[in-house]
Amino acid sequence: MTPTLVRQHRSHADSTSRVDPWARARDWSEIQERMLVPLYEAVHERLEVGPATRLLGLRCGSGLALLMAASRGAAVTGVDTSPERLALARERLLPETARGRDAGRGENGGTRARTAPRLLAAVDADAAGKETAGFDVVTVFEPAGCPAGDSEGLGEQLAAALPAARRGAAVVLVGWGPPERCATSSVLRVATKPADPLPSARGWRPARRDDLEEVAQRAGLKPDGSGRVSCPFGYAGLDSAVRGLLSTGLFDAAIAATDAKQVDKELTEALHPHRRQDGTVWMPNVFRYLVARVP
């Protein structure tokens, strides 16, 4: 199966000019993205993702969930707004292309079962769908609802992508669990400190009970079950925890409204209660996912 990665056009102004996008993308890929592996595994298992699956990953980040689906035999396509994260996804999913090797040769010189890698030069999920129609699974593993205004934007993004999905296809939406079951919630409150964050920045708010159902309804989907998965956030130390959490983008509004050093300081202080005797940082969390169907 051929992994396909598509860059989606940015729909809002860049309010984070003081942020190094490549450093953030690397921190996401190397530190933070793995925290959601239990969620990826649970969803893939529930939907029986395998060789017969054509999967579209919206907001695919640096591609770890896509890689896991591809390892189960699925044909995967990824869409994201970040060129930096998408470049890292290409390194993961298309290593032969990234190194300039012959993608059609195996380790012993034989021909691979997969066809040659193909990348689409599309600017949004709608354009991607027109060229790669027939998805039976659509995933959005980036937690919905927590950034202000995120649910509305996701509903529109799904509506654009769904014509590419088959009737009855599964659409998976993800959100944070109840704040009382997510230790990281107390740390994320640092992102709400600025009194007047920039309107285009993705600030944080506590998850609401019906966030995922509202997105599904807005996109015209029919809910078909849900689940909860334990996804503890574990870091080697405070520095790693700060870098990982900053890579989510949830603190960019605070950085734009105040100062990066100030946000780093407040994050470090908020993380201290979660630091263990060996210096590691550990925060138990629960994430919720909703499976909806394309009518």
Automatic annotation (TrEMBL):
Q: Name one GO biological process term.
A: methylation
Q: Which enzyme class, named as a word?
A: transferase
The entry lists its GO molecular-function terms as:
methyltransferase activity
Q: Which UniProt keywords apply?
A: Methyltransferase, Transferase
Q: Tell me if Translocase is a UniProt keyword of this record.
A: no
Respond yes or no to whether keyword Methyltransferase is given for this record.
Answer: yes
Source species, domain of life: Bacteria
The protein depicted here goes by the name Class I SAM-dependent methyltransferase
Listed EC numbers? 2.1.-.-
Q: List the InterPro entries hit by this protein, alphabetically.
A: SAM-dependent_MTases_sf
UniProt-annotated stretches for the region Disordered:
94-113
Q: Where is the composition biased (Basic and acidic residues)?
A: 94-105
